[in-house]
Amino acid sequence: MIDVVASEPGPIAPAETMEVSVRGRWVKRPAATINGQTIVVRGKRIRIASLHDEDWTATGVINPAECIQILKDGRAGVHADIFCFSQKVPDNQPHYDYPMELRSLAVANVASVEDWWRKVSHGTRCNIKQAKKRGVEVRLQEFNDDLVRGIMSIQNENPIRQGRRFYHYGKTFDEVKRDHGSYLDSCDFICAYHGGELLGFLKLVFCGNAASIMQINSKAQHQTLRPTNALLEKAAEICASKGVEYLIYGEFNLWNKRTSTLRDFKLRNGFEEMLVPTYYVPLTAWGSFCVRTRLYRGVLGVLPTSAINVALNLRRKWYELESKTGGM
Q1: What is the helix, strand, coil percentage profile of the chain, to 5?
Q2: Is 114 found in the same domain as 78?
Q3: Distance from C-alpha of 178 to C-alpha of 217, rounded to nearest angstrom
Q4: pLDDT (tens digit, 9 = 90+) per residue, 12-27?
Q5: pLDDT digits 0-9 by tens, 58-111
Q6: List of E strands, 178-209
Q7: Could you list the residue range(s) of the whole structural domain that residue 148 is in?
């Protein structure tokens, strides 16, 4: 967490370092406080500054123009090449004259359970009904040590998930508790049980008129009980009961990666693509070059979709082989 330091009068507090989660590990990154908001700098070759945990907050960046100027002239005490910020769902009309991309998000309309139910596939409806018939119980759960141990049993089931190495596999009790102990005043833990065993959980963070799925995991050995479908139905029900209109399930398309089993799963469960303006504002000459060439996209924004699919398939096969031979 960011250290508390007495700030000088005005919109800027002294620069510090902050621990953030990167691929399941906590690492220190440069940070500054501007207008009461924490701005974190990530990356080495291309240093990108953004609002800390922007996806889990109800409001976006306060006064982007002022924030950009403070970062440019060095008053923030941190060095970045690009400042990135997004508008919030469902605000999809651009408001700023900065270099922009349309971020692809998976969003479900959950103003009412009926609205969501009409969007899910016939197979998903059958799965939800089967889960109930087979005795799967879905309920809200307090975040406590018992839940942490249950989450550990799910995360330590398999080192490979969705064809890639699972970052949370093999973590200790304290590590898992720290990972999931954020936003406890604005989140719900939705849990699926069968015979007293935790089959899956969903962490739902409320962000104003939307709610975002921070984590959703289920045990692969019990997928025939359809706990993940049941968890999403409960999430839609809770959102509707609280007057939350939109449920966000991460990215729909990630740059040129446009096919995956997870994307198909989201479609079957009532999620559709919503394009939200995301701005990439250059702060340095190197940042200007990266914005013009879109280097900030990384590999998934450079390679064609066909090449990405081949690479992901090879990676999946390699991890599966490594897991079977005990190499992980």
Answers
A1: 35, 30, 35
A2: no
A3: 17
A4: 876 789 999 888 899 9
A5: 999 999 999 999 999 999 999 999 999 999 999 999 999 999 999 999 999 999
A6: 187-194, 197-207
A7: 107-273
